[in-house]
Amino acid sequence: MYWAYYYLEEGQWVYSQKGASSRAVSDGMVDGWAWGSGSYAGGTSDVNPPIIPFEDICVPDTPTPTLTPTPTETPTVTPTPTVTPTSSSTPTATLTPTLTLTPTFTPTPTLTPTPQPFAITRFELDTATVAVGECATLSWRVQGAETVFLREAQNSEQTVSAASALRVCPAQTTTYSIRAVSGDDELSQDVTLEVLPPTPTPTPSPTAAPTRPPTATPTASPTPTPLPPTPTPIPPTSTPVAISTTTPIFTATPQHIAAKPVQVLTPAPTPAPSSDPARFLRYGGFALILALLLAAGLWALSRQAGG
Description:
Elements: E1 2-9, E2 12-15, E3 31-36, E4 38-39, E5 44-45, H1 54-57, E6 119-125, E7 129-131, E8 136-143, E9 147-152, E10 158-160, E11 163-168, E12 174-182, E13 185-196, H2 277-306
């Protein structure tokens, strides 16, 4: 139960959801309140203020009639003939009374509203499509109806006023129906609010960050370690073996061969070889040559001895 605020438009009360504080009333406009059941949050009221013509609310000034005084008739005194009184009596004069007129006021006639034809004059949305999360305004006006019902989709009907508006924010496409009843007559209309699905936001593809090529770290060139100087090989101081090339002298006797003895020179001792491998090779070569020379000399001697 609450006070519902209305304003009169084209002879019909229209429920105002904004309240009286947001409406400026000017000349010729009519506002009203009605106490009864309804839903303030739902923007509905089951009770409308009575329809009172503007002339009945603001009665024009009625001019005060100016009373014209009626002249008072002066009674005419009819003289009574004088008679000789037989007794001591005094004649009495009769006066005619004066009439005062009272003015009569004509009452102002009461205007009887002309009944309107039974019809649904408006049932519409301010927009046919909305996105998810958006709202639309559903407004209606019915004239000549005893009861008006409003239904949203498959929900049950609710009683609403003949003229009002409602803010609707459905999550999906919804059909709204209005049904008006007047005696045995019934009217109905439907209107559909289409709810568009949200537009998917494209996800940007990740952009690969440019990879900086690796910078080669300069490697210091190895400094060659100087090898110790190679000692100059000292040639051996050994005395070569002298092989006699003289022709042996034979004696006359063929059975005996006289030959000078071969002098074999003993080489001087050589110093111990160093740890240089090349020096070992050189020394080995020298030893091999000496051995070959010695073997050749012995072979030559054996040949001579055999001859």
